[in-house]
Amino acid sequence: MSDRKDTPASRASTQVDKPGLSRRSFLEMSAAGAFLFGFCVPLRETRAAATAPFAPNAFIRIDRRGEVTLIMPQVEMGQGTYTSISMILAEELDADWSQLRVEHAPADAKLYTNPDLSIQATGNSNSIRAFWVPLRRAGAATRACLVEAAARTWGISAAECRTESGAVIHDRTGRKFSYGALVDRASGIAAPNDPVLKEAGMFRLIGRSLKRVDTPDKVNGKATYGIDVLPPGLKVATLAASPVLGGTVAHVDDRRARAMPGVRQIVVLDDLVAVVGDHMWAAKCGLDALDIEWNDGPNAGVSSELIWSRLRAASIRQGAIAKDVGDVNKALGGETSSEVVTAVYEMPLLAHACMEPLNCTLKISPTSAEVWIGTQVMGRVRAAVAKASDLPESQVIVHNHLLGGGFGRRLEPDMAFSAARIAKHVDGPVKVIWTREEDIRHDIYRPAYRDILWARLQGGRIVGWKHRVSGSAVMARFLPAFFQKGVDPDGVDSAQDIPYDIPNMRVEFNREEPPGIITGFWRGVGPNNNVFAIESFIEELARQAGKDSITFRRSHLDKTPRLQAALDLVREKSGWDTPLPARCGRGVAAQIAFASFIATVVECEVDEAGEIKIHRVTSAVDTGIAVNPDTVMAQLQGGLVFGLTAGLYGEITLKNGRVEQSNFHDYRMLRIDQVPSIEVHVIKSGEAPGGIGETGATASIPALRNAIYAATGVPLRRMPVDRALLATHRKPK
Amino acid sequence: MIALTINGERRNADVPPDMPLLWVLRDVLGLTGTKFGCGVAQCGACTVHIAGTPVRSCVLSVGHVGERAITTIEGIAATPNGSKVQKAWLDLEVVQCGYCQSGQIMSASALLDAIPHPDDADIDAAMAGNICRCGTYVRIRQAIKRAAAGA
Question: Which of A212, A218, A263 to mutate to test the interface with B (most CBs of B within 10 A)?
């Protein structure tokens, strides 16, 4: 795009690999269904060309000047992954941290597939978990080649050399080679298949709160998001898609729009109308001037009432069994036994509302397509554009950019597909921008869920537990191979592996797809729903047992000391045992989600009208080795706000097949004046790194709910918070 | 043709006077640091300074700017408080996705211009119009105080 940037991330360019470069396939994709695929470092064939940099694998390139370019397999959407990934590579490579250059990876499923997801995707909070070992191996193998090259030159053994800050050093003789000086010599050396990795105690970068590589250009306006690209000759389009899913355009009167200055073209497709203009204002005015009649189609009658009545009816059925331990029926003594505690929890449909509205820029010719976008799924974007423009994927080039928020919305390629269908009617490059209203009303929404739980207490302990999750199976659409025997593994994530030690338990999944709306991943995915239901129910059981909330949880966690330690720390740091005034309360939530162990306390006050003021949030997290502790802290702080926003405000509703919300006035976000102090305590750990990007969103909703319960005695069973219920229950039950 | 003074430079734009300044900056003049978020002055991502006052450029017709100086994120480093705010933002690693941060920085630097040592209530009042979906508010508050302390 432009060369106006000067930090490593902003110097990023999306390079498309030169054709003819053969590579070894690295993925051993066996039968679908397993979460983990075999994975080794994707190798590049060594190139002998005299000008070629040293690029022994897909992640590292070193040129003769010693400039080290790190290729980012995962996209940067604010989670700090460019920095963390660079730290991991640079750690094992012993590169000079100040001399690194960062580059977006191109769409290339062979080289950059996420080993945990089986596609080239950034999601499920697994960038560090999925790439931790492969990146370390890539760095270590590259380092080994450079050391070997130096040792051969000096006629000594590699074992006599050490590396530091981008140089190989032979201490005994004081000799030193910079990596750049070794590029030619190293190119002929085969990288070891099983390079030696550093012991944790040898880390120089990992574990330090290094400054992020992407932030300098994010405070001065230079950072380029997808929406910022300006290829020469660019036009701008905006669109109106059928307000009802599955609806079509019946008639368009475009006479007024055509006469407007700056309007260049009106593109009418089956299910959408776009106006192309010299700039967004012309396009938007043109769109507003169109008179569009829609055929609403079969979903015209869909409403929130319909969606919920179907989900509630479906949730009565027994679900597919995801986990069955012991004899739950015997332990419960039947669902209707007087000793069984039961509760039903409901989570609403939610929009993502990334700050950067959906957009995609394309230049489509009869023989090729070029795409500029910020996406979590580069390969799927390429496939979507290829399909929409009737081109082979090999003729589609995708340039990825920084994402102005992802949160799961940009795990979908739908915006690229729609934009390509428009762009193929446009001569030259066109940037298609969704207005905020179109973005909110044509989201791929977080599913609505309904959870029914049953449990039985005996002597203050849970002896039987049954949890039935009902809702969409996102995996069945997104990665169908993972949807097996009626169980969506994401739908029961954090439920089938509940941390509490319960001898008899069953987890069921009940698939029920809502009519008239598409559902997808949203920050926190399955655990977001499950942790809410479990931690709300555990709270009710703790009350039933007459135990302190933290003590009760702790007593069921003897086999999970990492979560016990997080609970102990949050108890201390939150002031859990200090008294609070009336109508104030603290609520706790404990979770193992995305392989991180987190305990969170929210402290809030509920006024007589039922309005909530959050006073304080405290979280303790054991995420294993924290590659960059400040990033872990930042992700949790932000994720907690994301969850609180959903708990206090988030709900998408439908009427006459149409989403009723449209912009930030009716799809509200938490603002700075509502956000309290948020303390995050990172527990030092030597365990393998866990995921962190989504964990805060998962933690704060149940902690808020339990704080409201403590403040008012009202056990809310549905999100978002219903203030009317809190206003009418002025005294604890 | 409309003449504007942006970050100290004279720029001309052949646009209709009712066109929001946001789109003139982004689509006509190539100053893409100012962001589109909502189009209805709900989120603050498009905040710029007009004669030093923070304004939502998505709802400000370019024809209403007149002779007043426009400052955007691209030019804020040249102002004393702007550069302090940027530095504090980096020192405290405020930024996550970063998309809203142009607007946050413009609002924060205008706050410090008006109130050199803002308290929490001042920060709430000045910054509540800027949404951050990543939830960086805790650090935004800290960074404003840090920038003020460095004044």
Answer: A218
